[in-house]
Amino acid sequence: MSSNxxxxxxxxxxxxxxxxxxxxxxxxxxxxxxAIAPDDFRHDLERRATGRTRHTSQRHEADEVExxxxxxxxxxxxxPIALLIRNTDQRSKDYAKIAEQFRPGHADxxxxxKYGIRDPRGGGRSSARETTMRVAAGVIAxxxxxxxxxxxxxxxxxxxxxxxPHGFDLSAVENNPFFWPDTRQVTELELYMDALRKSxxxxxxxxxxxxxxxxxxxxxxxxxxxxxxxxxxxxxxNAVKGVEIGDGFGVVAQKGSEHxxxxxxxGFASNHAGGILGGISTGQPLRCSVAFKPTSSLRxxxxxxxxxxxxxxxxxxxxxxxxxxxxxxxxxxAMVALVLMDQALRHRAQCGDVGEVTPRIPAQRxx
Amino acid sequence: MSSNxxxxxxxxxxxxxxxxxxxxxxxxxxxxxxAIAPDDFRHDLERRATGRTRHTSQRHEADEVExxxxxxxxxxxxxPIALLIRNTDQRSKDYAKIAEQFRPGHADxxxxxKYGIRDPRGGGRSSARETTMRVAAGVIAxxxxxxxxxxxxxxxxxxxxxxxPHGFDLSAVENNPFFWPDTRQVTELELYMDALRKSxxxxxxxxxxxxxxxxxxxxxxxxxxxxxxxxxxxxxxNAVKGVEIGDGFGVVAQKGSEHxxxxxxxGFASNHAGGILGGISTGQPLRCSVAFKPTSSLRxxxxxxxxxxxxxxxxxxxxxxxxxxxxxxxxxxAMVALVLMDQALRHRAQCGDVGEVTPRIPAQRxx
Amino acid sequence: MSSNxxxxxxxxxxxxxxxxxxxxxxxxxxxxxxAIAPDDFRHDLERRATGRTRHTSQRHEADEVExxxxxxxxxxxxxPIALLIRNTDQRSKDYAKIAEQFRPGHADxxxxxKYGIRDPRGGGRSSARETTMRVAAGVIAxxxxxxxxxxxxxxxxxxxxxxxPHGFDLSAVENNPFFWPDTRQVTELELYMDALRKSxxxxxxxxxxxxxxxxxxxxxxxxxxxxxxxxxxxxxxNAVKGVEIGDGFGVVAQKGSEHxxxxxxxGFASNHAGGILGGISTGQPLRCSVAFKPTSSLRxxxxxxxxxxxxxxxxxxxxxxxxxxxxxxxxxxAMVALVLMDQALRHRAQCGDVGEVTPRIPAQRxx
Amino acid sequence: MSSNxxxxxxxxxxxxxxxxxxxxxxxxxxxxxxAIAPDDFRHDLERRATGRTRHTSQRHEADEVExxxxxxxxxxxxxPIALLIRNTDQRSKDYAKIAEQFRPGHADxxxxxKYGIRDPRGGGRSSARETTMRVAAGVIAxxxxxxxxxxxxxxxxxxxxxxxPHGFDLSAVENNPFFWPDTRQVTELELYMDALRKSxxxxxxxxxxxxxxxxxxxxxxxxxxxxxxxxxxxxxxNAVKGVEIGDGFGVVAQKGSEHxxxxxxxGFASNHAGGILGGISTGQPLRCSVAFKPTSSLRxxxxxxxxxxxxxxxxxxxxxxxxxxxxxxxxxxAMVALVLMDQALRHRAQCGDVGEVTPRIPAQRxx
Lengths: 367, 367, 367, 367
Description:
The structure is a homotetramer.
Chain A: E1 5-6, E2 11-16, E3 22-28, H1 42-48, E4 66-67, E5 71-72, E6 75-76, E7 81-86, H2 93-96, H3 108-115, H4 131-149, E8 152-160, H5 186-199, E9 205-212, H6 226-235, E10 240-245, H7 256-259, E11 263-264, E12 267-268, E13 276-277, E14 280-281, E15 286-292, E16 302-305, E17 311-314, H8 324-327, H9 329-351
Antiparallel strand pairs in A: 1-2, 2-3, 3-7, 4-7, 5-6, 8-9, 9-15, 10-15, 11-12, 13-14, 16-17
Helix pairs in contact in A: 4-9, 6-9
């Protein structure tokens, strides 16, 4: 199977380099009868768009999605859906000078070692530009999950550098450029980001994602577990270095008597597991958390090597995010949605549109 | 592809329930010419074996591996290698009483919801018994990686509950029942585990794994990244709730100027990335860390539900580990080895047994 | 994905060499709730068994199937079903002398070229012994297809050498050792086979398979077409050199006005297509035909080469079928059933258990 | 894995409807360093192009290939290669009238039954228009196979209706519009086709393909056999109803003493097997043959049903080939080339770039 494809039954194949003529994806296995229009992609693409605020990269892409196939008279037909976005704002000159340099912390060196050749323009295939198509494909998955099951997938920023939210208000997340759950800290964050940008440095971030109304029974043991697939999907996002489900690394210091989520006639009494047991959804809210490293594209000079092994000073003058984690929120949502839709189809294949199993524990919401 | 199969080119398919007649696996895609004997499996199976010390489950399994196919006159032939282990010490009676109960924190409830039926004997398919075959398959991968590339994969316990190692001595790890890197703490750990067992409770743990001598260039962008595959492989292990690569969640609070690993003629100056950039190995030591939840099989009673939705009191009197993380060390090693061998074959397929790419940065060892 | 695995959602992985300790398979993706017992396998295994009549190989295998996993209290649980058959009647001595020889028409030479090593005992992995597990797995598929959809899969021998059936009576097929549809020719066939066996030679054969009550809509364009999957499944059977769907090669000389099957309110007026259009089932009987080459294991001596490149005379004195096509009938049925069940699950995944689409053309039966 | 994807390591994913905005493909797994330019696709696309002669459909497509990704400065980088062709000559009006009709012999009915919706414009996804991208992808495979191994893949028409070649001259094939191996019959074929077109009817055809210089050892037993993959690849081409390897159905009447290809120090004495034994290449020329049904798009009226189940008269007035098999020749070549390249990469993965195995039998050329 293609290494640029993701998903077993809902299969997304992406292609394209950051500064090539276009990026795109093919979404295969999508059920027929889903209404899809180019405008449906606008909202989420805008949420991850560069140049959205002064706190993110100033690259300006129209990101107009063209639907090339799989949709007839506005409805999916069951054939592969191809989506295309032309690259318009490329500025390859920004990158010409580093074509023969290895930027510390970048994939320049590893692509060179693997393939013996690389497309240096804007990081080529290793650029986060690729994630645009994940978000586009995720829009289809979000729509199907919401229409069929009422599943809602929502992410937010739960940490930037040392800063954590003081409070938590999900409704606040979409009302500030940081996907931050506490409006009172927005000014603080803006000042922090301005100072960071001036310094020429960058910082890491943590993104949390929750999916509600996920039915119990999704996920395929042993090597197709729901949490295993989520881990792969989220770790595959650029700059991710860690993935947690439920309490994540917090479980290391927990006692079993504290961790195990009690089943009661009113539902689960807690949700330390994050909505997954044995790789299968419990019906509780799905909770995961992702760690993003600080981008290594800095204006701060550093010595490195070139393709000849000689020492060179590297300064990255391109347009970059001081905190790549901010725009990663909709990307994480998209990957969670794609995993869930794929698992929903896989469950239907093996177990059918099964009726009620008794008892159906009411999901515990605020876990 | 089977959800009980793992790996694209080195494909491991496992089968078997905890208290069924046997467990086994089929390892397909293994190169011909590798010497394999039943004794080769003994060491790692012993490392993960139950009943190894009083600090782990007292289930005693001989775990004798029978090689059913794929090996002729002691050498692999390139055909599928089937390994079989008969279950001998089953004691199903231990579990009879909970056949209709949902143990909090277990997969009982989710298997029931997914399939409408489950094998309750010892947790059936969801039991950690399945991981025995991962370790067995991992032995083949470890052998090939060591012989072909000198790759060494070593894990250790880096945290139990609140306890962390005071010092780090890799040579100490195999000399105590806790895979602990600081011998001076062994007595402390024994006392801690004794008290825990007496209390009827359990605790979580963290396992670290390092792989050295991994050549640069292994890993397939975008959805077959080395770190993505590792995340999936490790998260698929029973009780795992978090996976980190390199500095993991530590990157959230890092600055880019701190995180980026500098390339020098003497090698990388640091290894915050954990040996992976852009999903491809750098040639540095591969570093990952895994969080294990505390087992939910406790002697401490708790109210739960039965399959009829009625409230029942659950007490688990079977043989269980107060800290499942301890025996998980060789399991984590096995999954890392299987991922690496699979990626090595995938790299060879696309890029061949490529010669030297210049420059070949010397790996930084002590990162 | 493993090259010893077959099927996308119903995945069958086989292992084992002809004269190794055992052969077996793992059937994954099977829906839960199907009643399966060891006795269920007996009938079809007996139909393909060696030593069934004097007209087939005199190797006598008990072929007792042990169910190792995936079945609890006689019912499938949704976890992988492992089936094992021990090899009992091996007589490796029969083959010792040809360990270093390449038998013309056998896989000896190609396995040697590919792997640089081979298991010479009874042809090792390339032996038709492997097909025993296809038949065993096929039993599960046949049962599910019959219970869920009333699908019946039946094969027969439609040619041996130059001999073709004079008449066609499906009920006759199971009442003679040749799966022949015209009882009146059985004596003629027995005399033919006796003479052939005496001569030390072998002959080819053609097997036809029909599947009735296949619902319309099964099959996934473009590269998962029902006919494409059937072609792959049937061509993968030992000694197969050709596969036809519907009229097969007969279409080359047909006119479009003759070939196209007319749709009428009473159903299709003909079935030249063999029940498949555009890679999707029409609801008509599925018709396919397979060509089996004559076995190359002959008592007739022939010069060949050994592994050193020297000329050697080869005489195969082992127990072999003068016409391997005879016993291939249940194998073909099994592969058709496995393809159909896999496609049924794939269809359900993407399109659900869809209700009636109008118009549902009544299937034309006698095509 | 996507059902619109083909190949395990060299994975081709196609998309697009006959009269949608565009068709395209993504070729993943291609080794780096292969020189590819848009002009490279022109020759084979022209060979399969409609409107090439008066004997084929008069639809005129420019078929200009745009390379969207995976190629940098004219060389493949190892990242997915996306190819796009805009549809220009669509004439949807030709098809408007049959939007609600089921054309006998077409996929109209089965797509409707499967998906409950279909794109009727030019047959939508089921149109042979899709094969354009197979030919484009095949160009890359042909180039790599020729450069690396000297493999040549050549097809020709071996039968139209009742007409078979009187002689065989491979050099003649590319010098007439019928890919016919005997120039002396071209006039006869032109008259035959003119009469056929006037009659409004169509006819079937047979295409043969040979691949020379294929190294021994390619092909993966058991379910990834070279012949199994070829059968799937060729059967997946529109209108194909039969596939043969080597002597194909001719083996049914053969004796084993006649069929088995003798190994001699000078090479194989014959090639009845068609270059494959046990699913692995022998080093002899690979021979396969494919049966194409007559197109069902006829000007001859016929009663059929519409989507409401009512009887309607169908007349297809679009632009169609009276013999689709003619233009299928380069499509068959492309599929053979794609299978061979995929198997070459798979072989390299498991067995490496193996050196000489002794004895390397000289291939027998004229088999």
